[in-house]
Amino acid sequence: AKVAVLISGRGSNMVALADAAKAPDCPYEIVLVGSNDPAAPGLAAAARRGIPTWSLSHKGLKRAEFDMAVDAALRAAGAQWVALAGYMRLLSPDFVARWEGRMLNIHPSLLPRYKGLDTHARVLAAGDPVHGVSVHLVTAELDGGPVLARREIQVLPGDTPETLASRALVEEHILYPQVLAEMVRR
Ligand code: GRF
Question: Which fold has domain 2-185?
Fold first, then answer.
């Protein structure tokens, strides 16, 4: 299956997906890495791996207009699936409708808890003993689509948002390639 990955930043989940795609039995390939930030470090990481990249700054464009440009780039690349990986843009309803059921996101919390930003700090503030990461299908509700799989981590004494984020990231890099492979195999 042909997968496009959308990023806005460093792209470590994109790299995890791309590295897993090298395995001979991996059922997906990354055909495009796209970004709303032409300076996203993950674009260079993709290019170094020989993956085609595309970027367009969203600045000055209406959301629906920008999303239609993304959609055109995804289709031109032959993408059948979209994996959001640190993509920091809200999606227009039209774009979601076009990719619904074939668009995944990774989120650093045990959904449905802690949708949105600053999840690690919120987990600490709440005193939760357990935290984790989730992969879900993308619907019109931010971080609200059907959860496909999760991995848990323990919250440890002395944890900060940064230490939690880095332990969560390890789990993200394990979970996302697994779930994407399962989904495209169906
Ligand atoms: C990850 O924690 C992801 O769950 C969240 O944003 C971060 C992106 O990291 N949505 P990276 O760009 O994949 O390194």
Answer: Rossmann fold (3.40.50)
pLDDT at 183: 98
Please give the distance, rounded to the nearest whole angstrom, from the Cα atom of residue 48 to the centre of ligand 1.
19
Please list, in sequence order, all residues whose beta carbon lies within 8 angstroms of the beta carbon of residue 25, skipping any fewer than 6 positions away: none
Domain residue extents for the chain: 2-185
pTM of the model: 0.98
Cα 104 to middle of ligand 1, angstroms: 13
The ipTM, to two decimals, is: 0.97
pLDDT of residue 133: 98
Q: Tell me the CA distances in angstroms from 53 to 5, 77, 133, one per residue in order.
A: 10, 10, 27
The finding on whether 45 has its CB within 6 A of some atom of ligand 1 is no
